[in-house]
Amino acid sequence: MRMEKPKGWNTTVGKKVIMGLTGLFLVLYLIVHLAGNLTVFIPDGGRTMNLYSHTLHKTGPLLWIIRILLLLGFIYHIITGIQVTLRNRRARSERYAMYASKGGPSKMSPASRWMIITGLLIAVFVPIHVNMFSLGPYYETVINGEPMRDIYRLVVERFKEPEVAFGYAAFMLFLCAHLIHGIWSAFQSLGANNRRLMPFLYSLGTVLSILIAGGFFVLPIYTYFFIPLP
Amino acid sequence: MKYHLRIWRQAGPDKPGRFEDYTVDNIEPDMSFLEMLDILNEQLIKEGKEPIAFDSDCREGICGMCGLVINGMAHGPRRLTTTCELRMRHFPDGATITVEPFRAEAFPIIKDLVVDRSALDRIIAAGGYISVNTGSAPDANAIPIPKHIAEEAMDAAACIGCGACVAACPNASAALFTAAKISHLALLPQGHPERERRVQRMVAQMDLEGFGNCSNHGECEAACPKGISILNIARMRREFLRAQVRGPVV
Ligand code: HEM
Ligand code: SF4
Ligand code: FES
Questions:
Q1: Can you say whether the dihedral through the CA atoms of B165, B177, B229, A20 is positive or negative?
Q2: ipTM above 0.90?
Q3: Average pLDDT of chain B?
Q4: Which residues of chain A neighbour B235 with C-beta distances below 8 Å?
Q5: Mind listing the pLDDT tens digit for each residue in A118-146?
Q6: Which three-class secondary structure state does DSSP give residue B57?
Q7: Which residue minimizes the CA distance to atom 5 of ligand 2?
Q8: In chain A, what residues touch B244 (CB-CB under 8 Å)?
Q9: Ligand 2 neighbourhood includes B27 CB (under 6 angstroms)
């Protein structure tokens, strides 16, 4: 396989830096997003959630800047992820008849092997998700004399449909798998790893993945069973 | 002891390959894997058949010439062991053993189990050196280097260039090899003047050869007979980022 001489960000090392940066940016967003969503658990008929959402939308241009950055980061992550995976396939065209791990220090797992699969499943999930909520029906409510979008009602309404609640939760398992390898791997890709950091980063990755994906997983299920329709 | 072997046979680089079955008997437990193959080859020669081509040189784990994928593992099932150091006692009597060459686009098969690993040499030639004439050996401690740095550099320099990291990597990436070579120079003062150029050139050459990306699976470290750590790959990426910020773009 002859290729053109790659430079800078187009090298294999450069591309993984891009994967790591865009990946960690998306993880940061997920944490903020989850924090907002957890307001569903506050039993005040959606007051806090709607106020939070309203406050976010009042930031106007700032919100749009973040949305555009997110979209670009997401697309860049996907394109680079696909490029990386295709190159990896090409690098060994004749497969082994037998392939096994020696274990030991290896970090290989189904999560690390299926990054492209779990990634593409997330790519399928996100547009459906945005279309269902952000672009979904506009209910209105009045809080403190101010009219605003009743996003809480939309969320609870949707999660009362079993296929939505359980389908959503199922996708969060794929997210969890993606992050279990992704988070520590991103630090390693950015060179931000050494002998002392390694065990910490690996545990941090696992704990954060379970907290993030777990939060998004519990949300629809809890809503389905325990939150009354407003 | 007796073994059934499934061995990859391929007459030449562009010839089709296939597995063939062989049986060897009267194998001593303390024989190395390569000695077992020597016995099989003597048997084949006596039968008037073509012996199996495989690489080896020192047969004591220091040269990096040997390398087979045994039961799906580069250098076989033992950690920190080259194929030449692997003993037959690690395989139960009567076992069936599958033997394949190191597989990667960048390691074309020459014959049977012999692959061309000169891609690794070209990565070194691209920048894995210090381009000053050092003359005769300097006095020890003429350049003070902290003990832990010297140890770290020495650990990286332990790489024997066998290519097992590439063979074991699901992506056939040469990141561990290249990182080891970049690390042992980047850690020492002698390596500093050319560090930016070195990492850029070696990474570019590694890519040109058609190796895959590093997905941080860590299979390379598990397969490496010298236990080279993937933390060297993190160091290579730091060297790369440093070069991107301030170095010459080659
Ligand atoms: C919420 C969305 C997502 C988050 C938070 C996320 C996060 C991450 C992180 C942190 C990494 C590790 C980067 C590294 O090893 O340097 C990663 C790797 C990866 N991501 Fe994502 N990702 C997301 C969506 C996607 C999507 C939609 C795809 C679709 C192609 C994808 C494909 C990949 C692939 C293929 C890798 C592994 C690259 C490799 O082999 O090293 N990800 N992701
Ligand atoms: S890093 Fe280890 S496995 Fe790779 S070439 Fe060097 S000694 Fe062999
Ligand atoms: S023959 Fe030299 S390391 Fe195995």
A1: negative
A2: yes
A3: 96
A4: 191
A5: 999 999 999 999 999 999 999 999 999 99
A6: coil
A7: B161
A8: 8-9, 14
A9: no
Helix, coil or strand: residue B73: strand
- What pLDDT digit, counting tens, does each position of B156-170 carry? 999 999 999 999 999
Model pLDDT, residue A1 = 47
- CA-CA-CA-CA torsion sign (B211, B212, B213, B214): negative
Q: Is it true that B3-110 and B117-245 share their CATH fold?
A: no
Distance from CA of A145 to the nearest CA of B (A): 53
The dotted CATH code for B3-110 is 3.10.20.30
Choose the mutation target among A92, A113, A115, A116 for the interface with B, i.e. most B CBs under 10 Å: A92
Provide the percentage of residues in chain B whose pLDDT is more than 70.
99
Which domains, and CATH codes, for chain A?
13-85+108-226 (1.20.1300.10)
Residues 6+ apart with CB under 8 A from B250: A7, B197, B200, B201, B204
Cα gap B117→B43, rounded to integer Å:
29
User: Confidence band (pLDDT; 50, 70, 90) for A228?
Assistant: very high
What is the reported pLDDT for B132? 83
pTM attached to this predicted model: 0.96
Averaged pLDDT for residues B211-218: 98
Nearest to A105 among B212, B221, B249 (CB): B221
Residue A133 · residue A155 · CB < 8 Å: yes
Burial of B121 (0-12, 13-18, 19+ CB in 10 A): exposed
Q: What band does B20 get if pLDDT is binned at 50, 70 and 90?
A: very high
Distance from the CA of B190 to the center of ligand 1, in angstroms?
Answer: 38
CB A1 within 8 A of CB A49: no
Q: Which of B98, B168, B231 sits opposite A97 (nearest CB)?
A: B98
* Closest by Cα among B68, B100, B52, B21 to A97: B100
CA angle centred on A109, ends A184 and B77, rounded to 5°: 120
- Mean pLDDT along residues A201-208: 98
User: Is pLDDT above 70 for B250?
Assistant: no
B31 within 8 A of B80, measured Cβ to Cβ: no
Domain boundaries, chain B: 3-110, 117-245
- Direct distance between the N- and C-terminal alpha carbons of chain B, in angstroms, rounded to an integer: 56
B117-245 placed in CATH 1.10.1060.10:
yes
- The minimum-distance atom of ligand 1 relative to the CA of B215 is 41
Whether the Cβ atoms of residue B238 and residue B177 lie closer than 8 Å to each other: no
The alpha carbon of B85 and the centre of ligand 3 are apart by a number of angstroms equal to 8
The answer to whether B221 contacts A106, with C-beta atoms less than 8 Å apart, is yes
Which chain A residue is nearest to residue B211, measuring alpha carbons? A91
